[in-house]
Amino acid sequence: MLFTLAEAMLLLFLVMYLFLENLRATLIPAVVVPVALMGALTGLFVLGYSINVLTMFAIVLAIGIVVDDAIVVVENVERIMTEEGLPPREATRKAMGQIFAAIVGITVVLIAVFVPMAFFGGSVGAIYRQFAVTLVLTMVFSALMALTLTPAMCATILKHAPGKELMPSTGFFGAFNRVFRRTHTGYQSAVQRILKRTGRWLVVYAAIIAGAGWLFAHLPGSFLPEEDQGYFINMIQLPAGATQERTLEVVKQVEDFYLKQTDVVDHVIGVVGFSFFGRGQNSALAFVRLKDWDERKGPDNAAGAIIRRANMALFRIKQAFIFAVNVPPIPELGAVGGFDFRLQDRAGLGREKLMEGRNMALGWAAQKPALAGVRPEGQEPAPQLMLDIDRAKAQALSIDMADLNDTLQAALGVAYVNDFVREGRILRVQMQAEPNLRARPEEILRLPVRNTRGEMVPLSEIARPRWVVGLPKLDRYNGNPSVKISGAPAPGRSTGDAMAAMESVAAQLPAGLGFDWSGTSFEERLSGAQAPFLFALSLLVVFLALAALYESWAIPFAVILVVPLGLLGALLAVTLRGLPNDVFFKVGLIAIIGLSSKNAILIIEFARTLQDEGMSLIDATVEACRLRFRPILMTSFAFILGVLPLAISTGAGAQSRHAIGTGVMGGMIAATVLAIFLVPVFFVVVRRIFPGHARPEHEHE
Question: Could you give all domains of the chain from N- to C-terminal order, each with its CATH number?
Answer without folding.
Answer: 2-218+558-609+617-682 (1.20.1640.10), 231-376+485-519 (3.30.70.1430), 382-470 (3.30.2090.10)
